[in-house]
Amino acid sequence: MKNDISRRASLLHLSSLSLAEKMKSGSFRSLYRGRGIEFSGVREYLRGDDVRAIDWNVTARMGKPFVKIFEEERELDVFIVADASLSMCVGTSQQTKLEKAMECASLLTLASFYNSSPVGAVVFDGELEFFCSPKSGKKHSLMLLSHFELDRKKQKPGSVLDSALRGAEKLLKKRSLVFVISDFRAAEWQASFARLCQKNDVIAIKIVDSSDDNIPSVGSVLFADPETGYEAVLPTSSQKFIRGWREENEQRNENWFNYCARHGGISLFISTVQDPAAELIKFFSSRHRHSF
Question: Which CATH architecture has domain 2-24+75-290?
């Protein structure tokens, strides 16, 4: 098992190195909300100091001018929320949503390791399967990769995305860069997501597949929800049904995108036919260009 994980890390090595470089461009915070520096204290005003840095509250209290001191943030924790629920086990390409999600999680873990950023994760399906706080080091990173290798036979029905987000909020003691990788098909995750965004920089990665939009015309077919067990016969040959299926998915994606933006989250779609490394590198390159 250990050799398999090391081999997987080697296969992802070059892609994660490129991703690490893009993530490191500037600073994590400047990519998203301009928080490349943070407040560290005050000192007396010296001739030549920028008057915009004057702390007027301290100045009034002390009777002489004081300025705020800022320092560049050296280390930003990374945290990954990875969805391994049964609804992720679909895909019309060579990979399922689940496999694509775990590849994203692995790439981000290795990129964080190469940037010397502490990284932690939660993996969930119908239960919280694994949870650990951000730490540094090769041994820790390989341990995380091992938890992204899943045995489908042991997956539990349901999705506890809400619990995973609430757990992350409680676990993270300082502002962190949080990646939420999911199909977001769970119920009642929105409030926890909004709270997580208040104290962290959150990137929501929605894993999608062509079957979300297009359903093959094969007559009346029994469909079953893998998480709830709900079953229904769907008329896949009906043009009205196919159009409604597509429109409903488009509306769901639009609502998701708008909700993320409204609460300060940054959204990214990655499909089962795309290369996660290429999409993440392109995403970070774009964010870096737009931040200056």
Answer: 3-Layer(aba) Sandwich (3.40)
